[in-house]
Write a structure and sequence with these properties.
Layout (H helix, E strand, L loop, with lengths): L1 H4 L16 H26 L3 H13 L7 H13 L3 H13 L7 H13 L3 H13 L7 H12 L4 H13 L7 H12 L4 H13 L7 H12 L4 H13 L7 H12 L4 H13 L7 H13 L3 H13 L7 H12 L4 H13 L7 H12 L4 H13 L7 H13 L3 H13 L7 H13 L3 H13 L7 H13 L3 H13 L7 H13 L3 H13 L8 H13 L3 H13 L2 H14 L2
Helix pairs in contact: 2-3, 3-4, 4-5, 5-6, 6-7, 7-8, 8-9, 9-10, 10-11, 11-12, 12-13, 13-14, 14-15, 15-16, 16-17, 17-18, 18-19, 19-20, 20-21, 21-22, 22-23, 23-24, 24-25, 25-26, 26-27, 27-28, 28-29, 29-30, 29-31, 30-31
Length: 586
């Protein structure tokens, strides 16, 4: 029996035996027989010229219902029914021409057939014709005409047209941008439970577009559309669970919805699922699977996946590191106007990752991304301006880019803007504003800003001196692995500034900072070994080693201390020679 079921098996166990429910099989065969009998009856009636059955027969040929699927036969019967005035058949025939189903693709012919239907006020065809004008399919692109046709169908309560019209109002396609009007049409379509409208209305509530922001309502709408197996809504609901938008964070639940959406080959869900496997978010990490998912989404034409796959090649995540391939993928996405890829490509040109450094090319791509309000690109372009990298130095232009990115809530730009106010680089010097921007970024967990704010509290820059506050911020930044904060915290602990004096804890933080390559920390650690300070014994060799490392990292004070310590190495020999000379007269 097992051999009949699994002919390639060499052995079987009792658990391998499949028990067949003959009753269910009999019912299935009866259903198949009835379907075939019904098809045969339809065929006979259609051949007798009965209009009412020709369309149904065509659908059976399209869907393989009761007969082997045969798109060519479907087109034949659709044409027969269309000639006799069946508008359903005429519209379906138009779709066949549009997508090349059973007939050679002919978008112009498709648009003409949609027009014939629309002229007889067949509402779904009016909407289809509008889509042709929106996308320039078989006709010249005419967004205004598209919006007119959507409105014509929407006013007849046709939900897909209401939804398309709403999208026009959301994006200013053929009409003036009007989020409130968009939301109104979406609500009408959602009242008919049209899943795309329900999902897009959820987007509106999530972002406060045309309605008052209400993340909880957004989640309700996403769930409602997701329960109709609408893949984009499943994906949106997953993102809510992943990020805690309108619902308690639940990465595992997020992954479940992503998997359901990805099972329908929805590329955004496939790509985000790849991110989950890469980061171990809601699922066990599996970087190889992540790369496979990114590739699957790339094959579906999803631009963010190109960028994610590029990052895998840049960092060697799930693949062998290949910076040149990373650059090629970033370029492919950037040339299709995907803004994050523009920024990544600009950074590669700036730093020479996978390509020859080219500050001018870097500025080109960063500017394109920055002009589309991508905050990381604005930050990097601002730094190029202030450093004169790829363009003439311009502190004021740099500060303006920092302002733009800070206004979008980007903590690194807030920190750089704070530095502009602290130093007067491109902005009027204003220590209080500097401390304010550092505070905004620090509260969002950005470690360099936490460290800068600590320095403000230590030195009274724009705030009242408060060593205790300074130490609190240094601890936060040091806990995130920022070497500069570790070194400053070590100094506070050794001197008892804002915290109880603790030389051993000071040494721990100093060693961590030095181990991470911080020049100042390596310098101080070398001094401590030289002098036997900070709970360390004197150790000339270790002192030389750390001072040498600090000097190689560009710490000028370390270079001076290193020369002095190396010069001291000859002093004992000189003193010994002088004593021998005196004793023995040489």
């Amino acid at each position: 029996m097992a051999q009949d079921i699994q002919p390639t098996s060499e052995a079987y166990h009792p658990r391998d035996v499949v028990f067949i429910n003959t009753h269910l099989i009999q019912r299935a065969m009866e259903g198949l027989q009835k379907s075939r009998e019904k098809f045969q009856a339809l065929l006979e009636q259609a051949e007798l010229g009965e209009l009412s059955v020709q369309y149904d027969l065509a659908l059976r040929y399209l869907e393989g219902d009761g007969v082997e699927a045969d798109p060519v036969q479907a087109v034949h019967w659709l044409s027969q029914a269309a000639e006799l005035g069946d508008l359903r058949a005429l519209e379906t025939l138009a779709r066949c021409y549009q997508f090349g189903t059973g007939v050679e693709m002919d978008e112009v012919r498709a648009a003409e057939l949609y027009r014939q239907c629309a002229e007889q006020d067949y509402v779904s065809a009016v909407c289809d014709l509008g889509l042709c004008y929106e996308n320039g399919t078989g006709v010249d692109s005419d967004p205004a005409r598209a919006a007119e046709l959507y409105l014509q169908a929407a006013e007849q309560d046709y939900a897909p047209a209401m939804c398309n019209l709403a999208v026009c109002y959301l994006n200013g396609i053929g009409v003036k941008n009007d989020p409130v009007q968009a939301a109104a049409w979406l609500k009408k379509a959602a009242a008919q439970d049209f899943p795309r409208a329900v999902s897009i209305l959820g987007n509106c509530y999530e972002g406060g577009t045309g309605v008052e922001r209400d993340p909880e309502r957004a989640v309700q709408l996403y769930r409602r559309a997701a329960q109709q197996d609408y893949a984009p809504a499943m994906c949106n609901l997953a993102v809510c669970y992943l990020n805690g938008i309108g619902v308690a964070p639940d990465p595992a639940q997020g992954v479940e919805w992503l998997q359901r959406s990805a099972a329908q080959d929805f590329p955004r869900a496939v790509s985000i699922l790849g991110c989950c496997y890469r980061d171990g978010d809601g699922v066990e990490p599996d970087v190889v699977k992540a790369v496979d998912l990114f590739r699957q989404a790339v094959e579906a034409g999803y631009l963010p996946a190109l960028c994610d796959l590029g990052l895998c090649y840049e960092m060697g995540t799930g693949v062998e590191p290949d910076p040149a391939q990373a650059v090629a993928l970033y370029a492919q996405a950037a040339e299709q106007d995907y803004v994050p890829a523009m920024c990544n490509l600009g950074y590669c040109y700036l730093t020479g990752i996978g390509t020859e450094p080219s500050p001018e090319q870097a500025v080109h791509w960063l500017r394109r991304a920055a002009e589309q309000d991508f905050p990381r690109a604005q930050l990097l372009l601002g730094r190029c301006c202030q450093n004169g990298n790829g363009l003439p130095r311009d502190d004021e232009a740099g500060a303006r880019w920092f302002q733009a990115a800070a206004g979008l809530g980007y903590p690194p730009a807030m920190c750089d803007l704070g530095l502009c106010y602290e130093t007067g680089a491109g902005m009027p010097q204003d220590p209080a504003l500097a401390a304010e921007w550092y505070t905004r970024a620090a509260r969002q967990g950005y470690a360099p800003a936490q460290c800068n704010l600590a320095v403000c509290y230590l030195n009274g820059i724009g705030v009242e001196t408060d060593p205790g506050q300074a130490v609190e911020w240094l601890e936060k930044a040091a806990g995130q692995g920022l070497p500069r904060a570790m070194g400053l915290l070590s100094r506070c602990l050794r001197a008892g500034i804002g915290v109880q004096r603790d030389e051993r804890e000071a040494l721990t933080w100093l060693q961590k900072a030095a181990g991470l390559g911080d020049g100042d920390a390596m310098h101080v650690l070398g001094q401590w070994y030289r002098d036997g300070a900070g709970a360390l014994p004197k150790d000339r060799e270790k002192a030389l080693d750390w001072l040498r490392r600090a000097a190689e990292a560009g710490c000028t004070g370390a270079a001076e201390d290193l020369r002095a310590l190396e010069a001291d190495a000859d002093a004992p020999q000189a003193r010994k020679k002088g004593l021998l000379g005196r004793l023995f007269g040489s």
